[in-house]
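Here is an idea for our session: we take a single protein and study its fold together. To get us started, please write out a protein record for me. Once you have written the record down, we can walk along the chain together.
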Amino acid sequence: MSRGSDDHSASVSGSGPWVAPGEPKEDGNPSADASKHCDDGTPETPSLGAAASPPPAELAAKAAPENDDEPQNTLTKKFTGAEWSALRKFRPMLPATFAEAFPDNPGASSTPYILWGVTIDPTEPKNAKVSVILMKFLRARNLNPDEAKSMLISTLRWRQSFDVEGAMKEQYPEEIFGKLGKIYGKDKQGHPVVYNLYGAIKDTSVVFDDIQRFLRWRVAFMERSIALLDFETVDQAVQIHDYEGVGLFSRTENSKRAASEATSIFQGHYPELLTRKFFVNVPSFMTWIFWLFKPLLSSATLDKMAVVGSGPRTIGTALLPIIDEHELPKRYGGSADGF
């Protein structure tokens, strides 16, 4: 996003294209991270045995901000005590973070930056939406402020060099890229639902002949889905990866390179933007890859993923508990006309 203008057009979804089920993608966590996470994304601590749990009121008090002028929204109210502690250490690092990210700008340490439609002012970072954004980088790095700072610096530098705003403005052939990704409906919690249709184009050469064009479209598509997040009540999306039509020989050297580069982009620069990820219509010859990669994935990543069978009835059994029937296309077991 550009610096200094409140542009809500940017935002996003997406995992690496043509990546087999189970391959680690943009959850923002290292693929072989050995540390475990609780459902809320905080590091899981060992049990201390028979010690009694504090009463709920005491837990709430510990999780609350240290002072009552902390801006709050629905999402920040879910932060744990450990997360608030990490956030308070991270926020004072923002001037130095921006200065390192933009060394050619002498005023970078005090210049606001727009990320995913949210203005981050390094000199006045106490803002509920900003807290939600910063928490994504913290959670992706196990609440380590120094590592979160490095990740944010890397992301800001990448967005500038990749020219994300320019990618959003580019025109991509609708007959090709319009078929590969769809954003349709919401789940029962208000999360937008993003569909990646890997078998929609039979001639993959037209998609991957120009790898950089594909990557720029993929990032723009991701940004479009993020634009649907308000970072007040909703800050994540649901992804459905549909492999219908994908054959044994669908992958080419170019598609593999594109998948690798896209996976690196989304892992490194789009942390904690997915709430659930479903792989549907997965060919039998690909399911073994999920089990191959499963031991390498963190428990937090595995909790978000599900490999589902084929056909509307089977898929609907998995999706209807989280997506209302009228929001789910018929091809996936719902009643909506869809796309």
Summary: The longest strand covers residues 274-280.
